[in-house]
């Protein structure tokens, strides 16, 4: 890589992407990715009212309750993170 | 060898005899001196004596002068030669030569006025809060004391010198640096003439080596021994003695006297001065001069920069010396045979002096004499030759030696103490930042930033800040150094505290720099500094300057404080400000405090609103201060606050209305002006009712002051009148009856037109009045002045009329005024002589356009004038006439004067032979305006005659001609192509290809569009053939424009007329052509958008091929074509083809070339839009957890852009992950079913 390329937009792209929550990188673990997926999913369910209504009917809960449940699940969607092996 | 010795002995004997004879008073003739005939040929009579010499010195150094030295050690030399300055030096003069003007100086000092130059008198103050400095005798930091001290210093020099006449020239503050004891060190650096006194004085100095010279620069501090402390046994006196041969100096006879200077006479050896001076006589513990600022010695206080003239001299001298430098040992070794010569020890009395200027230093110092030891000569030094800096350091400029000289010393890094090593490292990095090439700068800057904490604040700032005080600093260098400070500040954070004041001394002058960006930079630094150091430190650092007697210091301090306020918030500063503004100690403190408020208002604008009341309260009492300056600045601050707050916040000003009110009745002169300004800015904040009342009241004073001769008062009065008049609630009648008569009497005079600022202000105010009282009143008053004899005044009248009429139209103007107006405008237009014709043209255009159909009766007269002037001898007059036609063409059409326009068209047509390009451009513009207005069919001369006349003009290379011509041709091609035979259009096509080379983008764009029009008119085949042929040319810009033109032709004539030929062209086995075709396709699909769905299947095989090509550019261009195609056909059911293409694009994701990878990523983004995020996600999933990191990185990059682009859409497409022990990854919700 030439010196001039080091500072151009392409190399900054990853930096730019890293500003957004939910983006990944080469060292992302399966667990971390899954947590992102789960949270994105719940956020999406909550954001689309028809989806929420659909789930409410399916679970026989009120829509508000569904929304609350989903939000709660976003806290630790996949349980506690696994122990990292020290290496 | 014996023979040699014998010969030497004989020669020495001869010389000794001769010297004895000389001493005995024997007559001395040049011919009697024995030359070494081997070297110099046979005496004076030999006509070929100079045969081997160059008869002239080469103009450029790199031709000859450098070749000699290159032989010794070429590699580092070449390395060091690749510096920014060498490159810039090669570049800049060339561009300067082009326009034949001398190079404009880049240095800041050259554009500064005296006030700004006072920054150089500032002293980077000693550390005042550094506990480490506690043990030292801290000098009084106040500038008063320093000034005194310095004066004393100068006085002592004067009195000691006893030669008042000489001193008169040198003993200004500027020359104080010569008195720096540390300077001795710098003498070691060759080529630097730090103590250069202009060579004019050289002789006088040379002739009088009197003992009285002890007062001379170097001697003074030594004699004074002002600073206690021992000489550090620094690197500089550790220079090893190298046994070396004599530098032979035969033939340089004029030197002989000095070469023989007895050693006792003084430190004549360059480099020896510092080294040999006995410790007791080396003044001060800070031989490094500017470096050790932490320990302030008088030397620093006395150090001031040299004048730029001196530096110029140094530069010049260095240049000359480099050409005439003495031969080095290596060079001599190379020249002489190894045998037959012997290197002699130099006689004990021998003291080489190289620089005339340094002879000054060579003068004896009686005090030094008894203790003087023969300096050990450092043979490793190349005396006057700038030494190469190892390690790829950039070249130093002569003035840099003062700061970076130590880098030239040849000590081993290991021998230095860690502190010195650190210092060296910093200096190297700074030198790279200052003088290096961009890559050097970048890395050096980064290192400085990264290691900032490691270096520590002290060493860093002690190096950086003196550099910023360098008088020969250039804008670019200052920018870079300021950038270093900024970065370093960020890293050092609270570690900067001890240096706050020093940094401020250096940075504050930036706040009043005339360059906007310098001011912004200065603000940024101070803002960051205050965030890093905290309010308490900032206040502590700047408090002593608040009542400084020097207005310059107070001014810059006030500005710096306002920046602190904006950085840390006004509330934080309010208590302090309050205390300062009420200071009983000195009026200066109150003045500065109030000025800070003013600067805060100016800097922060409407952000002062929340604190407006408290700010006004803080300064309110200043209106009745006993000091006039305080009263003035208070009023000005109120004006600034009101201006910043407008249109809100009148209630905050309630408390000051009364004092202001009283003030304008009781004050006179400057104070009155300030008070008026304050009132003028407060009135617009008021309700209509009050505003009207106050305006009437203040107007009496204003009208009285109309006749004030004071320029400043005039400006303020104009400004206030403008403010008052524009305020709601001020009636038109009142203005008309009470203000206008006096206003016009006093302000509409010729003198006002002469000063640019008055001129502008007057026009603005008058326009504002016209907005209230209407056009007729104002124009009626000034219209007669259009015939005034002073041109600037006419111009001012014209500009006012233009603005008034453009604002308000001409419906108020009655028949009589209309006549006068047209008459006046015609007169003014015809009488103009100055270069700037725009005012008259715009005025004429504005009036004629505003009058519209009412101009009809005057049009014949106007056109007569134009016609007459088109025939004028002066090119400028012709140009103005043509320009005027283009301004009034539309109105002529409104007046149904088509016949007249046709006539003008014919006249212009006849003038197409014009030779002045500027005029020709205007004529073409006028023709274009007429064609636009009367249309193609009615145009005279007919289009079929006009266009062939334009074809040759297309060859003209002048930008204005090109632009107007291509516009006109394009217009004709667009609207009246059928009037011209196809063959003519083809001819034009060929001419247009040349125009694609134009520098101006507008011309290229017009050209490309014209291709489209022509293709539409005569069919795409021929045009296309021309364009496709043009793809073979070498020049890139030409090809790019051609591809755009092809795409435009395809767009205007439908793609199917172009695509077959275009795709056929891809078969030409030539890179440029194929890439051109691909690029055309890319543009084509970009332009046709949705229409692309009909062609996507046709071009897919071609793109397949291109995406598999070995050539990177093929794939890149094809990828961008795919992107445009995908974006165009999104949602139109072409997914099959797109997936197919995606399969070809995808393997390119591992490309590293920036352009290629960019195109590929964009193609994938396009595909995401067209195919949906889920499809791309599925492509992505293969690689997200690939074992190879390189692969993962690329895939995550794609995933991330996918995620950012379509996060929500991915939810449905994520893979179902298996649960892992306690961790539940499944998403059961999606499986729900009703």
Automatic annotation (TrEMBL), chain A:
InterPro entries per record: SF3b5/RDS3-10, Splicing_factor_3B_subunit_5
Recorded hits in Pfam families, A to Z, give: SF3b10
Segments passing through the bilayer: none
* Highest taxon of source: Eukaryota
Could you name the Gene Ontology cellular component terms for this entry? precatalytic spliceosome; U2 snRNP
The UniProt entry's GO biological process terms, in alphabetical order, are: mRNA splicing, via spliceosome
The entry's family comment says:
Belongs to the SF3B5 family.
Q: What is this protein called?
A: Splicing factor subunit
Organism, scientific name: Panicum miliaceum
TrEMBL record, chain B:
**What does the entry list under GO cellular component?**
spliceosomal complex
Per the record, the major location class is nucleus
Record InterPro entries: ARM-like, ARM-type_fold, HEAT_type_2, PP2A/SF3B1-like_HEAT, SF3b_su1, SF3b_su1-like, TOG
Q: Which residues form a coiled coil?
A: none
Localization:
Nucleus
Q: Does the keyword Nucleus apply?
A: yes
Q: Where is this region: Disordered?
A: 41-75, 88-288
Could you tell me where the Acidic residues compositional bias lies? 60-70
Q: Which UniProt keywords apply?
A: mRNA processing, mRNA splicing, Nucleus, Repeat, Spliceosome
Q: Which residues form the signal peptide?
A: none
- According to the record, where are the HEAT repeats? 615-653
Basic and acidic residues bias: where?
94-116
Q: Which residues form the TOG domain?
A: 785-1046
Q: Which family does it belong to?
A: Belongs to the SF3B1 family. Belongs to the phosphatase 2A regulatory subunit A family.
Protein known as: Splicing factor 3B subunit 1
């Amino acid at each position: 890589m030439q010196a001039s390329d080091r500072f151009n937009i392409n190399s900054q792209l990853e930096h730019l992407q890293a500003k957004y929550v939910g983006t990944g990188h080469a060292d992302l673990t399966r667990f971390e990715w899954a947590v992102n997926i789960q949270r994105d999913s719940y956020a999406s369910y909550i954001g689309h009212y028809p989806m929420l209504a659909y789930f409410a009917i399916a679970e026989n809960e009120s829509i508000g309750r569904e929304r609350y449940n989903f939000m709660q699940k976003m806290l630790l969607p996949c349980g506690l993170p696994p122990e990292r092996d020290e290496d | 060898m014996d023979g040699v010795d014998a010969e030497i002995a004989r020669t020495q004997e001869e010389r000794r005899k001769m010297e004895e004879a000389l001493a005995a008073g024997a007559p001395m003739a040049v011919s009697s001196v024995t030359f070494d005939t081997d070297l110099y040929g046979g005496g004076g009579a030999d006509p070929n004596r100079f045969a081997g010499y160059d008869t002239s010195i080469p103009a450029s150094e790199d031709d000859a002068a450098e070749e000699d030295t290159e032989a010794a050690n070429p590699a580092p030399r070449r390395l060091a030669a690749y510096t920014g300055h060498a490159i810039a030096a090669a570049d800049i003069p060339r561009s300067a030569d082009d326009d034949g003007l001398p190079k404009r100086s880049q240095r800041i000092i050259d554009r500064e006025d005296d006030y700004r130059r006072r920054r150089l008198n500032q002293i980077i103050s000693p550390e005042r809060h550094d506990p480490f400095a506690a043990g030292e005798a801290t000098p009084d930091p106040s500038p008063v004391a320093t000034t005194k001290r310095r004066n004393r210093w100068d006085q002592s020099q004067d009195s000691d010198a006893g030669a008042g006449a000489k001193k008169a020239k040198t003993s200004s503050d500027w020359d104080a640096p010569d008195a720096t004891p540390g300077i001795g060190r710098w003498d070691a650096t060759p080529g630097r003439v730090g103590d250069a006194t202009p060579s004019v004085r050289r002789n006088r100095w040379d002739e009088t080596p009197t003992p009285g010279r002890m007062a001379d620069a170097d001697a003074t501090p030594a004699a004074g021994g002002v600073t206690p402390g021992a000489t550090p046994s620094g690197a500089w006196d550790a220079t090893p003695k190298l046994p070396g041969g004599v530098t032979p100096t035969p033939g340089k006879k004029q030197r002989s006297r000095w070469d023989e200077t007895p050693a006792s006479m003084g430190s004549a050896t360059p480099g020896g001065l510092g080294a040999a001076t006995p410790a007791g006589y080396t003044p001060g513990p800070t031989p490094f001069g500017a470096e050790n600022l932490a320990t302030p010695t008088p030397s620093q206080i006395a150090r001031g920069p040299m004048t730029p003239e001196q530096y110029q001299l140094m530069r010049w001298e260095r240049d000359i010396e480099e050409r005439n430098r003495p031969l080095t040992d290596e060079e001599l070794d190379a020249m002489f045979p190894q045998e037959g010569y012997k290197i002699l020890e130099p006689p004990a009395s021998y003291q080489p002096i190289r620089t005339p200027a340094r002879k000054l230093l060579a003068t004896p110092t009686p005090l030094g004499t008894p203790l003087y030891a023969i300096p050990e000569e450092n043979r490793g030094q190349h005396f006057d030759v700038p030494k190469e800096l190892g390690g790829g350091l950039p070249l130093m400029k002569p003035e840099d030696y003062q700061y970076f000289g130590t880098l030239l010393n040849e000590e081993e890094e290991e021998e230095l103490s860690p502190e010195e090593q650190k210092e060296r490292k910093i200096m190297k990095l700074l030198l790279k930042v200052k003088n290096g090439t961009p890559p050097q700068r970048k890395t050096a800057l980064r290192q400085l930033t990264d290691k900032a904490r490691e270096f520590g604040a002290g060493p860093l700032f002690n190096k950086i800040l003196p550099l910023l005080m360098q008088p020969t600093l250039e804008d670019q260098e200052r920018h870079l150094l300021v950038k270093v400070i900024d970065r370093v500040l960020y890293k050092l954070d609270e570690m900067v505290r001890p240096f706050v004041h020093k940094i401020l001394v250096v940075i504050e002058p930036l706040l009043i720099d005339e360059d906007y960006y310098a001011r912004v930079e200065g603000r940024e630094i101070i803002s960051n500094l205050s965030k890093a150091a905290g309010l308490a430190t900032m206040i502590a650092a700047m408090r002593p300057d608040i009542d400084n007697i020097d207005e310059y210091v107070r001014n810059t301090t006030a500005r710096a404080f306002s920046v602190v306020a904006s950085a840390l918030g006004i509330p934080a500063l309010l208590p302090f400000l309050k205390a300062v503004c009420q200071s009983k100690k000195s009026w200066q403190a109150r003045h500065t405090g109030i000025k800070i408020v003013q600067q805060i208002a100016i800097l922060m604008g409407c952000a002062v609103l929340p604190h407006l009341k408290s700010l006004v309260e803080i300064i309110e009492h200043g209106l009745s201060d006993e000091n006039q300056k305080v009263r003035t600045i208070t009023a000005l601050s109120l004006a600034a606050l009101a201006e910043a707050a407008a249109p809100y916040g009148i209630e905050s000003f309630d408390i000051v209305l009364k004092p202001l009110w009283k003030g304008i009745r009781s004050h006179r002169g400057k104070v009155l002006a300030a008070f008026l300004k304050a009132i003028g800015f407060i009135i617009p904040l008021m309700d209509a009712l009050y505003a009207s009342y106050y305006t009437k009241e203040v107007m009496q004073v204003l009208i009285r002051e109309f006749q004030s001769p004071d320029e400043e008062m005039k400006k303020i009065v104009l400004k206030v009148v403008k403010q008052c008049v524009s305020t709601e609630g001020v009636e038109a009648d009142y203005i008309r009856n009470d203000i206008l008569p006096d206003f016009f009497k006093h302000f509409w005079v010729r003198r006002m037109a002469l000063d640019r600022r008055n001129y502008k202000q007057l026009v603005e105010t008058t326009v504002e009045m016209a907005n209230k009282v209407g056009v007729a009143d104002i124009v009626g008053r000034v219209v007669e002045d259009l015939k005034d004899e002073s041109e600037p005044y006419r111009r001012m009248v014209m500009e006012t009329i233009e603005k008034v009429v453009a604002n308000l139209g001409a419906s108020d103007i009655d028949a009589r005024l209309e006549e006068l107006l047209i008459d006046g405008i015609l007169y003014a237009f015809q009488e103009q002589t100055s270069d700037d014709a725009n005012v008259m043209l715009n005025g004429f255009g504005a009036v004629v356009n505003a009058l519209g159909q009412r101009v009809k009766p005057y049009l014949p007269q106007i056109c007569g004038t134009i016609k007459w002037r088109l025939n004028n001898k002066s090119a400028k007059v012709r140009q103005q006439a043509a320009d005027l036609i283009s301004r009034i063409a539309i109105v002529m059409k409104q007046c149904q004067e088509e016949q007249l326009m046709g006539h003008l068209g014919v006249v212009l047509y006849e003038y197409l032979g014009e030779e002045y390009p500027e005029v020709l451009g205007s004529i073409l513009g006028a023709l274009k305006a007429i064609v636009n207005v009367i249309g193609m069919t009615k145009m005279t001369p007919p289009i079929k005659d006009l266009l062939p006349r334009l074809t040759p003009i297309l060859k003209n290379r002048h930008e204005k001609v090109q632009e107007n011509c291509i516009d006109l041709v394009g217009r004709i091609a667009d609207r009246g192509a059928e009037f011209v035979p196809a063959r003519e259009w083809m001819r034009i096509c060929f001419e247009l290809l040349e125009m694609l080379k134009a520098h101006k983008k507008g011309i290229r764009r017009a050209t490309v569009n014209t291709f489209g029009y022509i293709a539409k008119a005569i069919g795409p085949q021929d045009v296309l053939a021309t364009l496709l042929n043009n793809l073979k040319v070498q020049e890139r810009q030409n090809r790019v424009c051609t591809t755009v033109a092809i795409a435009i032709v395809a767009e205007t004539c439908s793609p199917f007329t172009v695509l077959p030929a275009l795709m056929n062209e891809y078969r030409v086995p030539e890179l440029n052509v194929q890439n051109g075709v691909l690029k055309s396709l890319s543009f084509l699909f970009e332009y046709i958008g949705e229409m692309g769905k009909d062609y996507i299947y046709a071009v897919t095989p071609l793109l397949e091929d291109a995406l598999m090509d070995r050539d990177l550019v093929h794939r890149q261009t094809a990828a961008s074509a795919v992107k445009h195609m995908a974006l165009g056909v999104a949602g139109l059911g072409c997914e099959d083809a797109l997936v197919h293409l995606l399969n070809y694009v995808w393997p390119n994701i591992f490309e590293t070339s920036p352009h290629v990878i960019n195109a590929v990523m964009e193609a994938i983004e396009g595909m995401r839009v067209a195919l949906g995020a889920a499809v791309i996600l599925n492509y992505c999933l293969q690689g997200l957890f690939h074992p190879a990191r390189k692969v993962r990185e690329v895939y995550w990059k794609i995933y991330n852009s996918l995620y950012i682009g379509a996060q929500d859409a991915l939810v449905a497409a994520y893979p179902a992950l298996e649960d892992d022990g306690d961790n539940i990854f499944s998403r059961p919700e999606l499986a729900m079913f009703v």
